[in-house]
Amino acid sequence: MSGIVGIYERSGAPVDRGLLQALAHFLSFRGPDARETWSHGAIGLGHTMLRTTHESQIEQQPASLDAQLWVTADARIDCREELEKKLTQQGQGAAGRAATDSGLILRAYAAWGAECVQHLRGDFAFAIWDARKKILFCARDHFGVKPFYYSELGELFLFSNTLDCLRQHPNVSEDLNDAAIGDFLLFGLNCDVATTTFRDIRRLPAAHAMTISSDGLRIQRYWSAPTDGRIRYKSAGDYVEHIQILLQAAVADRTRVDRAGILLSGGLDSASIATTARDLAASAGGPQDLRAYTVVYESLFPDQDGRYAREVAEFLKIPQQFIPMDELRPFERWEEAEFRSPEPVDDPFFVGLFDQFRTIAADCRVVLSGEGADNLMLFEMWPFARDLVRNQEWGSLFRESSRYLRLRPSVIPGLKRRVQGFFGSDPRELVFPRWLVPDFARRLNLRDRAKEWGQLPAARPHPILPKAHASLALPQWSSLFEQENPGVTRCTVEVRHPFLDLRVVNFLLALPPFPLFFQKQLLRAAVAGRLPESVRMRPKTPLAGSPLVEHIKQARAGWLDQVTWDGEMDSYVDKSLLAAFRNERNSERAHSALRPLCLNFWLQSARKVRYNLRAEVRNA
Question: 237: part of which helix (H) or strand (E)?
Fold first, then answer.
């Protein structure tokens, strides 16, 4: 989670070194362990180091290979032994040099050039200056866990993994991207993963690489979730053993540290990661100090997650810290600069994220999450049945369909809706907000935009798991990862996601989903005897209540009477048509109705962070 920044003057003009150093200094909160810059002629790279792995203790960046390749990277490279073997075969052995993450990236580029991303595993955002070819090569990891932002301003190219860092450059304007604002008001986030809320700042999408030269900029996708995998074992136990091995490898790669935290929710997914980490620690293959952190509601509504999480922590003998959120009010502390988000967020309790990460940062620099399992095991029986028909597996078709119908007796009445939903004619649609300014909605064609994003994307439909596959490309992932990133939280904590390890993803997308994914039977079998039965067999349970609705019900909405509207809001929202929601009891509708307020508060704070770096440099 180190900070990276770079300047490339494609015209050949020399980089302003003072400006580069000032931008790197701005990133000091991301990397308190070291700060360095390097520049030569038209290129300059900056880095602030946060050491989160054993290998990073000796790492220095920007790093060089033979003074011809230079890199600045925010990266954790996994599957290291496999990569080392490949590099040795390509004549890029370590030759006694320590295998730091930046070193592995440089050697991979030296071996394969731009194709190096096909061989890298882990979470990464990096930029490599190739002095021989006079090009800058940049890449972002497969799921976009690490952010990468850039600006192309004529011949000037800027990049960083922190949006606010680019905003400090005096040539980057404050002009907003109205398309992103429109998306936010409709959906609560910008659905265009290649843009940001600011006109001059773009983001490199997940699984994309970018090459910048004097001729211009070229971006290309290097990976998509596979659709053609097919794993069929004779024994159900083989599937269980395989997922256990893969989860151990995924957790081990993400816990090359002495101490790690776990975001323990009380559900099966995070508990599975916790028990895997505990097993690794017991075998000296993982962190010897594990700690659990659980967000709880103790009085606002009857929430049982804390109780289940406590059972897991006690069973695994992991110290646990509860982080209560009952007293946090909507929009509390949003006016304070230290809690400001670089882009609009539609969560009025957003400050709770800062409280959570500050608690974790007091103990750990690495924390594991159980995100991803729900998406990867999302399935419907009908695509699987069609696949069995295509392959003429009549015995399996009769056996599995009959079993599914017995387990899901309600499936027949819902058959029509399920088929309609799969083929894209589900009648449930987004309610278009009345309060959008007509000219704004018409100019951006927001009604068609609402219909366009009403369903999951399916550019390359998976024959058996179309919804699971499509869900991996949703823009919500980028939003989630970036909000948890230190560029937003300003806390030295890196969140890691074992279920989004490529080995795990490729395996799960290749399996027969029934009965393995039905109520997550595969995962439940994999942790049998390693978790309390009350948690292992607990059904998927949503949060017991809506914090927003509860605050509205309990007459804690005094903040509604004290709203000062930003002048720019008149361009987007007709305030006279804002629906009254003081009596709203539906969580989705309440959050949707609050988006204008979220945008308003963000606009008021967004203008407070910019200062003239060039003037600061001149004044030393």
Answer: helix 236-254
DSSP 413: T
Cα-flanking dihedrals φ and ψ of residue 436, to 5°? -70, 135
Render pLDDT for 421-440 as a digit per residue (tens, 0 to 9). 333 334 345 678 999 999 99
Residue ranges with strand state E in 100-228 = 122-130, 135-140, 149-153, 156-160, 202-203, 208-213, 216-221
Residue 151 β-bridge partners: 158
Q: Tell which residue, 21, 26, 22, 30, has the closest CA to residue 2.
A: 30
Residue 303, both tokens: 């929430």
- What residues contact residue 65 under an 8 Å CB cut-off, 6+ apart? 103, 106, 107, 110
For the sheet containing 63-65, what is the strand order?
63-65, 69-77, 122-130, 135-140, 208-213, 216-221
Amino acid letter at 553? K
Spell out the domains of the chain, with CATH numbers in brackets. Answer: 3-223 (3.60.20.10), 236-375+497-536 (3.40.50.620), 547-606 (no CATH)
What is the pTM (predicted TM-score) of this model?
0.93
Q: What does the pLDDT read at residue 337?
A: 83
DSSP 383: H
